[in-house]
Amino acid sequence: MPSLRLDTPVQFLKGVGERRAELLGRLEIRTVRDLLYHIPFRYLDATTVTPIARVRSAGAGAEVTVVGRVISTGVIPTRRGLRVFQAVIRDDSGLLECGWPGRPFLERQITKGSLLLCSGPVKHFHGRQLQPREWVVLGGEEDEAPDTGKVLPVYRATEGLTVRQIRRLVEDHLDRLLPLVEETFPAAWRHAAGVGGLRDALERVHRPDTVAVAEEGRRRLAFEELMLLQLVLARARRLAKRSRAGIRFTIKREFTTQLREHLPFALTAAQKRCIKEIVADQTSPERMHRLLQGDVGSGKTVVALFAMLLAAENGYQAALMAPTEILAEQHFATLTRLLAPLDLRPELLVGRLSAGEKAAVRERLASGAARLVVGTHALIQGEVSFRRLGLVVIDEQHRFGVEQRAALVEKNAAEGPDVLLLSATPIPRTLALALYGDLDASRLDELPPGREAVATSIASEKTRGKVYRFVREQVAAGHQAYIIYPVIDESEKVDLRAATKMAEHLAKEIYPDLSVGLVHGRLPADARDETMRRFRAGDVHVLVSTTVIEVGIDVANATVMVIEHPERFGLAQLHQLRGRVGRGAARSHCVLLPGEGASRERLKRFAATQDGFRIAELDLEERGHGELVGARQAGQVTLRFADLTRDTDLLETAHRLARDAIQADPSLSAPALQPVVVEIGRRFERGLELFRAIPG
Ligand code: ADP
Ligand code: MG
Question: Which of 169, 220, 554, 556 is least surrounded by Cβ atoms within 10 Å, i.e. has the fewest?
């Protein structure tokens, strides 16, 4: 056998054959290094496990963790067709029923005989029941319950490869693998962050004596992760600012002044402030790279339009790119309306135009006849060229990859257009810092006047009939409604079937006299867009939808948002959904319809506030370590080890150290820093290029 290195494929390890290597591959474990970095997502120790007998006497609402053997399972329908997966588990002290409402498909994953760990709140439901928020199959029939008193790592596993098997694999090889690990960071950085060495950290996370020791190890890995990201961000920012001079626009008071005079409303103070900040960037010789954050309905489009007009009156072109055709059309309609009094017509470039129409738009962009364009990904196609692109605006920027945003900017490689990113997803400061480093940000923290808060209420199965009647009354009054069903992962067939059934049920039995539409992510885009257009035109009264609706849809006539199973959505997502209503003059309502046994506490907290930034923070707190969906949502960067709610100190330290390091040594050329650059190359696809290929 060749000598073992960190790059050695995991298949060369004893105990890993072809089949197991394939399963490990599903967990992204391909090399022995990957195995070392596959760290436990939690630990079990005797002090955190409650004997089942004590759960049965615990009060409802108590949070517990139990471990037991599954002795029976089943799927039980409730009265209104929601199916609950149930498993009875046993330990030395007694039996306990665990229930997962709306998750019948777990039947395939949790089987009789397996050893199961569950944690979550105790509910009262025909006696005591645990409704697991978290659960993990620890082993099969042949596996023993863990020794009490021992700290047991729990790894992410996959079908066909149990936690237990992964634990064994790590245990068997850890002593041989650890000596291969070399330190990557200078001692000064480690001291500044208060963390230890890399080898030691990996040993601690895999084989801790106490949970606290494991946490120290994790913090070291988290620091490394944050530090590398901050170095990349600091470097990218330096290059962006240095490599090309920006365009220096001047204030000509032409189109911008005309728009101001003809606006059908007065700008809010926040809009004025943001326009000022953006104009200051545009008129400076440095390139603008600014994020405009604003809650749903805060009026980002008109702010962006002022920036676009400043570019236009300077003889440049401006492009606004949106992630879907519907959104692009919506912006196009808004711009067309606002620009009607001016002698300016925006262009629309989307996939559904005929080949001839597209060619005509492209022609006008290339000749410079078109000054403003709104479009989708169609804008970054190779055939599209601009005469003189001066400003790029990206709506819902997190839905584009970094390279897609760059592709539009590259349409003027000679001059380096300004970039304005729009986001309705409020990003807490820590997350923004982690994702963008020193990105400049403007915040629209005020809604236009006259917007009433969306009245948010929590209904229940008992009041479902009343909710349906309320929707009907609103439709009778000339309004429209959304009913959202949780199909969070569009590949979850069972969920999708439930949503489709629900739409059928509503159309046939509840609202036979109304027009009910259905949209979900598995429909072809043109069918989905067609239904959306009909909804916007008022031809569909009740729109049943999965979360595909979440993005910036603006139908002012819709006044009701009913959300089924809100317990299955994150708070930030609920906020986005609620933001689809309350966009017109009429009073709007959001009705939450939780499943039986769902916690109402967090829903109450949500109902009590409309502050998007506050909700974003609650959301981040709620999700905690391990499952940073927020990071992915907010910018296509996934953090594996860091937890932004707990590691803010590490983040601040990393940010400061990275800025200083790049300032002192812009390409990190010092010999002592070579392991750092190598690690960046390993973790970021174009990382080495960033530091090596480009001078500066
Ligand atoms: P978002 O920030 O969610 O993208 P939009 O830009 O779509 O918000 O604006 C939402 C609605 O509010 C639009 O119909 C827009 O015309 C309107 N609007 C924007 N600014 C104001 C304002 N200052 N006063 C009144 N209405 C406004
Ligand atoms: Mg918008």
Answer: 556
SS3 544: strand
| DSSP H/E element including 313 | helix 300-313
- The answer, yes or no, to whether residue 522 has pLDDT greater than 90, is no
18-49 confidence digits (pLDDT tens): 999 999 998 889 999 999 999 998 887 656 78
Amino acid at 271: Q
CB 545 within 8 A of CB 520: yes
Number of CB atoms found within 10 A of residue 93's CB: 15
**CA–centroid distance, residue 267 to ligand 1 (Å):** 9
Rounded distance from Cα 539 to ligand 1 centre (Å): 24
Q: DSSP secondary structure string, 204-225?
A: HHHS-SSHHHHHHHHHHHHHHH
| 598 DSSP β-pair partners | none
Average model confidence (pLDDT) across the chain: 86
Tell if the pTM clears 0.85, that is, is over it.
Answer: no
* pLDDT score of 55 more than 50: yes
Percent of the chain with pLDDT over 70: 91
To test the ligand 1 pocket, which listed residue (292, 298, 425) has its Cβ within 8 A of the most ligand atoms?
A: 298
Which residues have C-beta atoms less than 6 Å from ligand 1? 265, 267-268, 271, 294, 296-302, 424, 448, 552, 554
The ligand whose atoms approach the alpha carbon of 394 most closely is 2
Tell me the residues surrounding ligand 2 (ion) with CB < 5 Å.
552
Q: Each residue of 271-299: pLDDT tens digit?
A: 999 999 999 999 998 888 899 988 777 89
Tell me how many degrees the CA angle 652-653-658 measures, rounded to the nearest 5.
100
Ligand lying closest to the C-alpha of residue 576: 1
The amino acid at residue 550 is E
Q: Which positions ≥6 away from 143 have C-beta within 8 Å? A: 115, 162, 164
Confidence of residue 633 (pLDDT cuts 50, 70, 90): very low
- The CB density around residue 608, as the number of other CB atoms within 10 Å, is 10
Cα distances from 67 to residues 57, 110, 370, in angstroms, run 17, 13, 66
Closest ligand to the CA of 327 = 2
| Single-letter amino acid code for the residue at 319 | A
Question: How far does the centroid of ligand 2 lie from the alpha carbon of residue 426, in Å?
Answer: 13
CA of 298 relative to ligand 1 center, distance in Å? 6
Atom of ligand 1 nearest to the CA of 444: 2
677 CA from centroid of ligand 2 (Å): 39
Nearest residue CA, atom 12 of ligand 1? 299
Once rounded to an integer, what is the mean pLDDT over residues 482-499? 76
